Prior knowledge:
The structure holds two protein chains of two kinds. By secondary structure, chain A is mainly α.
Amino acid sequence: MENLIALLIAAPLLGAAVLLTGGRRLDRVGHWIGTLLSAASFVFGLILFVDLLGKNAEHRTLIKHLFSWVPVAGFQADATFRLDQLSMTFVLLITGVGSLIHLYSVGYMEHDERRRRFFGYLNLFLAAMLLLVLADNYLLLYVGWEGVGLASYLLIGFWQHKPSAATAAKKAFLVNRVGDMGLSIAIMLMFTTFGSFAFGPVLSHATQASEGKLTAIGLMLLLAACGKSAQVPLQSWLGDAMEGPTPVSALIHAATMVTAGVYLIVRSGAVFNAAPDAQLAVTVVGAVTLLFGAIVGCAKDDIKKALAGSTMSQIGYMVLAAGLGPIGYVFAIMHLVTHGFFKAGLFLGAGSVMHGMNDEVDMRKYGGLRTYMPVTFITFGLGYLAIIGFPGLSGFFSKDKIIEAAFAKGGTEGWILGGAALLGAAITAFYMTRVMLMTFFGEKRWQPDENGNEPHPHESPRVMRIPMIVLAVGSVFAGGLFSIGDRFLHWLEPVTGHSEGHSPVSAWTVTGATMVCLLVGVGIAWAQYGRKPVPAVAPRGSLLTRAARRDLLQDDFNHVVLVRGGEHLTRSLVYVDHTLVDGVVNGTAAGFGGLSGRLRRLQNGFARSYAVSMFGGAALLVAATLLMRAV
Amino acid sequence: MSTAAVHSLWTTAADPITKIPAPKIEYGQLSPTLIVLGAALVGVLIEAFLPRKSRYYAQVFVSVVALCAAFAAVVGLASDGYGTTKAHIAAMGAIAVDGPSLFLQGTILLAGLVGLFTFAERRLDPAAHGNRVDSFAAQAASVPGSDSEKAAVKAGFTTTEVFPLLLFAIAGMLVFPSANDLLTLFVALEVFSLPLYLMCALARRKRLMSQEAAVKYFLLGAFASAFTLFGIALLYGYAGSVSYARIAQVVDGTITNIDPALANTMGNDALLLLGSALIVMGLLFKVGAVPFHMWTPDVYQGAPTPVTGFMAAATKVAAFGALLRLLYVVLPGMRWDWRPVMWAVAIITMLGGAIVAITQTDIKRLLAYSSIAHAGFILAGVIATSKDGVSSVLFYLAGYSFVTIGAFAVVTLVRDAGGEATHLSKWAGLGRRSPLVAAVFAVFLLAFAGIPLTSGFAGKFAVFKAAADGGAAPLVVVGVISSAIAAFFYIRVIVLMFFSEPKPEGPTVAVPSPLTMAAIAVGVAVTLVLGVAPQYFLDLASQAGVFVR
């Protein structure tokens, strides 16, 4: 059974290798190879899942040791995989949703001449993400982490002929580097503290280390999570990443990449449990991001960017829950899974709309699409109901638990965090209703473009509709399936641990308050975008709206503080580099170069002088040997 | 002459005739060498009796089968435990069958097989008058530029004799690291050197340069052999025997029965020091250590590139094997004498190779100097004088030989009207024109430079670790510094290939037959496997790291 774990990663990796090196002869079948291998990985995942279910809760951990990489005394870098309930959950999400996105891309990328390459990258993305969640130590996790970074760079910049896409890819990569640095520092700290970076020793001995060190490790891990999961202050890449093809957005936002940060925090729970300050930082980051993303989502007219804001906000919920400690870990992961369903569905729906609208993304040029594309409307609508937390659907169960857990944190913190989460729920309801109304309701607002081509909205082909339908089903039922009878809690508890908090307010009060927030959000949106016609050109808007349209000035902030500051720093460093460092370096290089040129002349091509050199060498050798004895 | 001796001379006829016992030869344990030698003889017969047209196919077939069979024999012996528990000295004390022998023989055979693929390549040179030709001269005996050469080219001749020559060389190399007495060592040295001298002279293009290289190699090689032979004579005078075990006993002072005829010279340390220094010098010549390296660039450049690749890989493996056995089996008792000297040689070899390589402009010469620097790195492992030292050198040699053959195989692909385009300026922008070939070459260069995830890193790491544990930490520092210097010129080629504008009349990359492709693919695969998951092979080398005494 353990060998299947390696196959799980090998299948998409093989796909990536075959598709990226296979050349043009694979153009006609490449996309199916990629999809099949991804599906194969999902099937392996299912087999392992059934196997795990057949075991006792305590024995549901499979370890597969592949090989040791250069073992040295005290430094053990093993390629070992760990499959437990936590990684199993991720495996099913990654391969399941990932396979659906593969299938969808077959239709979406049909007219792209680089489709084979696209599928190669998608497979690479899955392989890297699987490596990340299956690694049994932080170093191997780091390999997957960087692999995800690479694959996201390649996919966001897939349409590299567009300068905006190339820039977005570069931005995502650079911002992620900042987070990666956090992870590498955390790993180094772990090594100096615990003498290892395997999960076993680090997590089981976490309590024995000093709190200061644990806080440092925790904060560095948080920095890493902020990068990959697009949390404040490293959130700026996520919106621009929409430059990638829409299936990529779905993959990044639902199944891979942004979930990595949450995984990292939950996996390292033992470290955070012993470092309350780091935990507090996690909750603050989560709470700030969930409001930040929600506000940005309210102001965007680009359908994908509105959804991107929503992702940021929902991941904020998860990070908040993960920061709450054992009362929140399970719910963070549960929300992650349900979010995987509905966010993938929403993105695929958005892609389907764009597909029918000549790649138009401005919602002000949509309107009334429900009659033109009914399947997209229904599946998108179900995803919408799920994300706002409509009673009975997936988002309702998972988000409600997080809000409850936030209040259960207790004290002033509990009230603040719970309040933020509630407010976030209201804003979520507002911006998602806005997206829904602007896209599918009201009058049609699209115009012929300058060439006189008017879009002809139409339903997408079946190969795109099937994944949307499957995901919609998941968005509806997953939450109930997990929550009723606390199935998910019992499944995950042995890994993450769980404790009930002491909420100052009862569960029913929280649910009631959430419902009120939801109604208020929907109501305001209806008043603004449902009752009145939507202007085709965006009004100037209030100061907050304008700021939110510019992503709450995040890029301006980065520019002023980091870019300008960085420029000054670099300029002075460049000066030092040119005068001092280069002086030394160039001097050394010139020295060696000159020496090389001079020594080279000894090699004059005459066998006689070579023989003399050998003779001299032999004489020296003999003399030195004799001399050694004499000394 | 004493009277007793005179008496015995006169009375010999009267003594009863004692039968000379037949030597006991363990044919099974010597089978790898015997298979290759037998196949080489078959190759000679093929040259004599088969029609010209079918010789090439017959030769390639026989050589491939022989090398595979010999490798199977090595694997069979190793799995029978001859590398570990059943290791012993065969053929009346002449040949050691033990872990290092079998490991190195396996490496040489595989490298020989891959090298054979590049020898057999016939798609790179344009067909001469409708005949497919390889990298070797149409008729070696014809004077370059003469009418007879033109006639041979027109008739579509090819020098298929290279295949038996290659097999003879491989057979010598198989014996060289397992030789257990000084005479066998010397015979093996000549058996593999002479075919190499010949093969160096056989280039189809630039024949004068090729012949010049061969003559230089031959002259200097003979010169070095003379030193070795002299050293052997002196050691015999010292120990009264050419057997490794016997000499080691004399060095250690554990010998009891002293031959009265040699009582005057036996145990004379001056003979020991002189003799061992001269033998070591001969071996250092073969591995290309400074200051005995000067043949390397000229010969590497002039020889046909497939020969260069094979020679650079397999000679190094065989010669380091012999050097290890000599220093670890015969001379461990005097390691306090040879270690400081070898320290000096290793240091100037590492630095010299790396520094002179910086200003090279020809890719083959560049690789030659790189091989000199690598000889220095391997010497660092040799100096460790520990079991780890042996196994790290074994591992290094295995990884290095495939990188080398692969790299030279890539060199054969980049061609212009004059044959291979070896001047570095012509490689500018190769990455734009032929990204795959350039990428593969970049992998080899990174392996040479010792970048992680390539076999070069794992090997260098093992060697330096052994050296540091063996008390040679300063050597490791020098090694790391020269690695840094060396990285400069390796990376410079990568930069040249990928970040320079291609020249308008640049070379083209020829599409080879599956033979060369296989050689390159094996090179890349071994480089990556030994870099990513070296543990299995490190364990293997570690198991094989004990010499039988």
